[in-house]
Amino acid sequence: MLEHLLATLLEITISVSLVIAVLLLLRPLIGRRYAAKWRYWIWLAVAIRLLIPFNFSLPQAPLQIERPAATKSAQPAFASEALPAANAATGKEAASGLQSEPKTAADLLPPAKPPLTAAQIAGFLWLAGMLAFPAFHIAGHILFMRKVRRWARDAAEPVQLEMFEETLSRLGIRGCVRLKISPALSGPMLTGLLRPTVWLPAETYDRQQLEVIFRHELIHHKQRHLVYKAVLLAAQSVHWFNPFVHLLAREAGRDVEHVCDSEAVKGRDMEYRKRYSRVILSLMSARTSRNSALATPFNGGKKAMLRRFASILDTRGKSGGLPAGLLLSSLLIASGVLVACEAKTPPAAEPTPAADSAVSGTAAEPEDAQEGEPAGDPPSSDANEPAASDASPETNEPAPSNRTLGDLPYRTTVRDDASRDFLGSESGQQLEQTARAFTEAYLAGDREQMNAYLTDPDHRRNDYPSATEHSAVQSVNLKLGVEDRTSGTQTASMELAYSDKDMLYYLTLEMQNTESGWMVAYYGLEG
What are the Low complexity biased-composition ranges (predicted)? Predict the structure, then answer.
């Protein structure tokens, strides 16, 4: 689950990073032609897209991001298994057709946990960063506000209260917005998502300054800019490793101030705009002690302030944001479908003919062993013929195999009584039937038949082999993992012995008990 989420996250963060890069390059053009509020909404749309944990990409996306496969050990639940040749040759099968293996000292130990994969480690690192990033900012804000509130008091000067109430009335703001004074501050600011408060330092301001301060901060409150900044913080937390997302948050934070300034001077003459700019400049000369992500202080760098003043004094009419919105929508859709994160499939081992006889002599038992044939006898002569005998003389390729599992030696191996009882139940028999049918379709390269047993046939990670890829299989052995089946999941491992390979391969099926019965959630071939 974590690995799948991380793969989706990579697709989203890479595709949206391309959009952010384009928007940053086009920012001068967008700033000249469109009002600040449209940039404001564009950044918000991108931030919300970063928080949606779904991505829709083309099956064959042009940009494929390769990630390590979430592999398991070759024998997930049977790392300590050992089958002596004597026991294999003389063992008797139970009436149910199940073969029990001799218990060793290793069987008494708990199964060894497989090592973490690179994808799992990356997932845990991402999760740790996602929790640490907001924790750092929230903790810093709490400490900062604790210092501010230590010597805070309610505003009591008549001029301040009169101007504050007057500005609230002009802006049509209803509800409780508090006005407080704190000597720990060096400039005004707005805080409080739930209990909004306008803060003033312990300084004396004239009426013109108070009018600009209150109008500016209350517009922040009216337009829910603290909620906006919280969304940006959430996007930064989820994508903390992506520098483009932090650039987005920085530019969006600046545009929040531009939007507030534009609303504050809307419909005003040039004289008022200049006076507004002078007040902002005087407040900027005394920065607040902390630039909190959950507050609106009067902070900003030199270049940012020059751009801000240019925006305040700009009285030119600008276009609506429909073209910019269409451009953004096209970029988001195009980038999303053109990027996909695919699992890296480990290369199969090179076949060597040295151990053909060893595989055919120890890995398989005849299906008709219950009729009196010894359990350890080698497969029939048809199954033991060299793979080259099935090859076409013209192409030297294996001929397509139409055999079913009924044509191959097949057995079932269990390690505990609970697994034996489970396979004897109706649910266990249905699981075995599904596993056999899926394996048969997989070995035959029958994609349509495989899809009938998959919970998600359209998943792009599904591996559909060719009809000749597994034509040299000599025997199949079903092995069940020892696990809690109350959760509705079960690992079934199909041990495959090939006549042209020097090692056993395992088709691991992660089974899921659905309303329709046991289905294959996902699978993988390992050697």
Answer: 346-355
- AA identity, residue 268: R
Q: Please check whether residue 506 is in contact with residue 491, taking contact to mean a CB–CB distance below 8 angstroms.
A: no
Give the rounded percent of residues in the chain with a pLDDT score beyond 90. Answer: 25
**What stretch of H or E contains 125?**
helix 118-150
Give the pLDDT band of residue 287 (cuts 50, 70, 90): low
What is the pLDDT, as a whole number, of residue 472?
A: 77
Q: Which residue has the tokens 């030696």?
A: 409
Distance, CA of 262 to chain centre: 38
Q: Are 74 and 290 in contact (CB under 8 A)?
A: no
Token pair recorded at residue 408: 């191959």
DSSP annotation of 78: -
Residues 409-447: pLDDT tens digits?
Answer: 778 877 777 888 888 888 888 988 898 888 888 888 888
φ, ψ for residue 64, nearest 5 deg: -105, 120
Helical (H) or strand (E) element with 180: strand 178-181
Written as six digits, the tokens of 363 are: 């890995």
Strands 489-498 and 505-514: antiparallel
Q: What's the token pair of residue 200? A: 């003033």
Q: How many CB atoms lie within 10 A of CB 37?
A: 17
Contact criterion met (CB below 8 Å) for 289 and 185:
yes
* pTM attached to this predicted model: 0.58
Q: Partners of 191 in the beta sheet?
A: 197, 295
Q: Are 144 and 290 in contact (CB under 8 A)?
A: yes
> How is residue 114 written in tokens?
């497989």
Beta carbons of 126 and 8 less than 8 angstroms apart: no
Run of H or E residues at 511: strand 505-514
510, 456 contact by CB (below 8 A): no
190: left (phi over 0), alpha (psi -120 to 50) or beta: beta
* Among candidate residues 518, 365, 461, the one with its CA nearest the CA of residue 64: 461
Task: Judge whether 296 and 190 are in contact, CB under 8 Å.
Answer: yes
Name the pairing type of β-strands 410-414 and 98-100. Answer: parallel
